[in-house]
Design a protein that fits this description.
The complex is a heterodimer.
Chain A: E1 4-7, E2 10-13, E3 19-25, E4 34-39, E5 46-50, E6 54-55, E7 63-68, E8 71-76, E9 86-91, E10 98-99, E11 103-107
Chain B: E1 3-7, E2 10-12, E3 18-25, E4 34-39, E5 45-51, E6 58-60, E7 68-73, E8 78-83, E9 92-99, E10 112-115, E11 119-123
Parallel strand pairs in B: 2-11
Antiparallel strand pairs in B: 1-3, 3-8, 4-5, 4-9, 5-6, 7-8, 9-10, 9-11
The chains are: A mainly beta, B mainly beta.
Chain lengths: ~110, ~120
């Protein structure tokens, strides 16, 4: 099973700042089968990025993903008020599918 | 508009059973594999089970294998999760989730572009 580790656990930033979230895998994620989700309190997760770097439908271009192998990054170029949430990475290159523990982005 | 609406959650005693349903609309249900993903209170996401579009292939997390059964009725556009021998650690919000890519049952297609609102399952005496 591929274990995903996310850092930092919490990121405290102000609106307008840049957010950089990390997701590290315990072994290589094949073909960059890595996705990112955003979850707000009381809501279901929302797909942001798939294939490590492809934005899902309707996702603003301030969200970008990069990385390969075992190291992946989600970048939010300029935080908007609605971006304060928990972000999860997920690998789907091998079974079982696994999620990281999440990074909470909160308002500084 | 894609909609996924779960139902069937509730309070159940340890060792008991529950069946969750997920009613789908707004897309060609039979073309997409579907999954159940759960989230324990205050915790992260855990994939539970998946089923191919035809229903012919099913997959389970080790934590539920032998206790949970995923199924679907494509004539009713409905996904199910039969949960038996429930344990306290099964307490969670259960989400049904639609795979982004049609006509694909490989693990490599399991990114989820639509999720239901979730249904809470509480296992407690």
């Amino acid at each position: 099973e591929i274990v995903l580790t996310q850092s930092p656990g919490t990121l405290s930033l102000s609106p307008g700042e840049r957010a950089t979230l990390s997701c590290r895998a315990s072994q290589s994620v094949s073909s960059s089968y890595l996705a990112w989700y955003q979850q707000k309190p009381g809501q279901a997760p929302r797909l942001l990025i798939y294939g490590a770097s492809s934005r899902a439908t309707g996702i603003p271009d301030r969200f970008s993903g990069s990385g390969s192998g075992t190291d992946f990054t989600l970048t939010i170029s300029r935080l908007e008020p609605e971006d304060f949430a928990v972000y999860y990475c997920q690998q789907y290159g091998s079974s079982p599918l696994t999620f990281g523990p999440g990074t909470k982005v909160d308002i500084k | 508009e894609v909609q996924l609406v779960e139902s069937g959650g509730g309070l159940v005693q340890p060792g008991g059973s529950l069946r969750l349903s997920c009613a789908a609309s707004g897309f060609t249900f039979s073309s997409y594999a579907m999954s159940w993903v759960r989230q324990a209170p205050g915790k992260g996401l855990e994939w539970v089970s998946a089923i191919s579009g035809s229903g012919g292939s099913t997959y389970y997390a080790d934590s539920v294998k032998g206790r949970f059964t995923i199924s679907r009725d494509n004539s009713k556009n409905t996904l199910y999760l039969q949960m038996n021998s429930l344990r306290a650690e099964d307490t969670a919000v259960y989400y049904c989730a639609k795979q982004r890519v049609p006509y694909c049952s490989s693990t490599s297609c399991y990114q989820f572009d639509y999720w239901g609102q979730g249904t809470l399952v509480t296992v407690s005496s």
